[in-house]
Task: structure prediction
Amino acid sequence: MQASKGFLAALALTALSSAVQAADEVVVYSSRIDELIKPVFDAYTKQSGVAVKFITDKEAPLMARIKAEGENTPADLLLTVDGGNLWQAEQMGILQPLKSSVVEQNIPPQYRSSTDAWTGLSLRARTIVYSPERVKDGELTTYEALAEQNWEGRLCLRTSKKVYNQSLTATLIETHGAEKTEQIIKGWVNNLATDVFADDTALIQAVDAGQCDVGIVNTYYFGRLHAQNPQLKAKLFWPNQEDRGVHVNLSGIGLTKHAPNPEAARKLVEWMTGSEAQSIFADINMEYPANPQVKPSAEVAAWGEFKADTIPVEVAGKRQAEAIKLMDRAGWN
Ligand code: FE
Result:
């Protein structure tokens, strides 16, 4: 009897201590690598005392894992890039709404899910990179114009298998409809200087090396390359400044459906949309803060200001399947 009482007391104590521990901890599954997230989580732990545990992997296995773990998932939050991926996670039923007036105040609506399933944390423009040696002043105008004959044999593109291009195409469909978008994409494919690239970095290097005159890339890849090689000749151009603006996508975060610590997770997300975290998070990958009150780093600001497309990034997900089919029909490998 005595022993049994002691055993029960010990059990109760264990349960209590794990509950206390759990409340002071948030678990994040992240498709962003350690070096891009750890400094932000460390800063949070330092001021809040809340531990942030994370694992990193590609987005597809992370989402499958949350789905498979179901009610037993240790994950409170999913952190990944591109509205297309976040929308997929929402469709899989692995996220739940995170309603927060703090997040609503900090992040513009076009960078959040309309159902509050996720919010953007940092922004990247998918814009035009060009050779100032081979592209004349005034020659560049819009994404659409890269389909014109003037660019025949001069354009480089990354593969259509990458979500970034699927999201860009999705927003073109939203703007122009499917028929006109297919003409634009066919024009791009016709104008290719060479086979599609596996990544944006190789594409920028190809522009720099003279393999092509112009291409479409995410801004932070340009930033990284420029930091490594200040002699880089390729430059960024902001298209569509007379109309809808540059295509902007994001990295973002969502609360998992069966989050063990939803309250602690909400506090972390709110903090991540605030000024201190926004600067650390955006600067580390040469991105733009999603909170418009927070200024980008000097390196990023040096690329110049631009008008961004205000289409909700969620469209990238809603029209993703349509975009993939259209790119395939147009012959974009
Ligand atoms: Fe990327």
